Amino acid sequence: MKKLCYSVLMLSLFTTSAFATVTVSTPSNDETTGSSVQFVASATTTCSKGVSSMGIYIDGDREYVVGGAKLNTALSLPEGTHNTVIEEWDGCGGATTASRTVKVSNAPGVSVATPANDATVSSPASFVASATTSCSKGVSSMGIYVDGNRVLVDNGAKLNNQVSMGSGTHNVVVEEWDGCGGAATRSLTLHVTGGSSGNVLSAIQGATGWDQWGELPPADNTCDAPCGGHVNFWMGQHEGSISKSGNATKFVIGGNTPYADVLFSNPIMGQRSTLIPDNDQKLIPTLHNFTFTTWVYVTDASVTQSLEFDINMYLNSKGMEWGTQCNHLGDGDWDIWNNVEGHWVSTGHPCEMNNGWNQVTLQVQRESNDDLLYQTITMNGKTYNINTTMAPFGVPSQWYGMTVNFQMDGNYKMSGNTAYLDDFNVTYW
């Protein structure tokens, strides 16, 4: 009997229980937020059977449970201070918790769920925010400024997006604009590690400011919808059914004139821009490097004549148009635009377009004499070195600004066609 007791004692001494952790990304402790509180958490355990489920307790009552080792949900809480507990349960019968105090305020303004003020974050940084207003027309849009430059705008009273920033400390402002002409802000100081080499204007496909025109052959004369039925077109933002982020934009072309085109354009910087106005013309003249990247969803490559991706710059009575097209049903190559002589030049590199999502990245540069350098084109992970220089062209206007374009070209039948853009970003420095 003594030997049996001794064996049981030794077994209990040398057998340890599973060790587990709960990591809460948001909310931060003692955070003030709106009534919709975002909870993001994960758990790990040394239990061989893993984490079986996670849950959220609000003021002692269990309000949410999900299977697995990750949790991401929003709960609606009444105004006041709430004690919240995020708990994990493992397959060995163990459980571990993490606690957060959350203060809910329904007062009008901007609430940033993540990141927390004075936080250290990696780039790109995830932003989750919401806004309320006493304006009867509600919140129309929300945006993010980094060091005084507006880099992102989303429509509506909720913002859930990523922003790339350079390494170092940045002053960030999250702003809401309501339908009555009012605005409110929330300021943050963020310390960024692993940042990019430039500022990033993100999610352009979902931003305000887009315009659209038809272009009719043979001289590409522009026309406004309905263009006499020669070319039909429209765009629909905040598309979720075919999307990578849940915020794609749908572009449609049709009509009855063969090889007619439609140009969709957004002035991302300058006096006409709703994104970065740069009214004092201090930012644009300092910029020389640009990376244009987007995901494009091709619904039917067999009727997609060509897709064009442009970034354009105007200053000092000069125009610089880095035009790049996937000439899919034409020469089958990537073409670049000679903006002095006004025609396309084949790069000799093939454009291999697939049905479904394709990622396109363009790297271009403005030289010290304002010549345009086409550096690289990357599609679906395959990079082509272009290294071709074009001269700028003269323009009568004194407008300082930058635009980005997406153009769809019709085929010989002018077959109806649809494409989607998502995660459309421009990095500039």
Protein described:
The chain has 429 residues and is mainly beta. The chain has three domains: 18-104, Immunoglobulins (Immunoglobulin-like), CATH 2.60.40.10; 116-202, Sandwich (Immunoglobulin-like); 207-428, Galactose-binding domain-like (Jelly Rolls). It is built from one helix and 33 strands. The chain has one helix at 2-14, and strands spanning 20-26, 31-33, 36-45, 51-58, 61-67, 70-76, 80-90, 95-104, 109-114, 120-122, 125-132, 139-146, 149-155, 158-163, 168-178, 183-193, 199-201, 211-216, 221-223, 231-239, 248-255, 261-270, 289-298, 306-315, 318-326, 333-338, 343-350, 356-366, 372-379, 382-390, 393-394, 401-409, 417-428. A hairpin with a 4-residue loop joins strand 7 and strand 8. The longest helix has 13 residues, at 2-14.
Outline of this structure?
This protein has 429 residues and is mainly beta.
Which key phrases capture this entry?
single chain, 429 residues, mainly beta, Immunoglobulin-like, Jelly Rolls, nine-stranded antiparallel sheet, 1 helix, 33 strands, 3% helix
Q: State mean pLDDT (0 to 100 scale).
A: 88
> What is the CATH topology descriptor of the largest domain?
Jelly Rolls
Largest sheet properties: 9 strands, antiparallel
Shape: elongated
The CATH superfamily of the largest domain is known as Galactose-binding domain-like
The CA-CA distance between the termini, in Å, is: 79 Å
Multimerization status: single chain
Provide the fold topology.
Blueprint: H1 2-14, E1 20-26, E2 31-33, E3 36-45, E4 51-58, E5 61-67, E6 70-76, E7 80-90, E8 95-104, E9 109-114, E10 120-122, E11 125-132, E12 139-146, E13 149-155, E14 158-163, E15 168-178, E16 183-193, E17 199-201, E18 211-216, E19 221-223, E20 231-239, E21 248-255, E22 261-270, E23 289-298, E24 306-315, E25 318-326, E26 333-338, E27 343-350, E28 356-366, E29 372-379, E30 382-390, E31 393-394, E32 401-409, E33 417-428
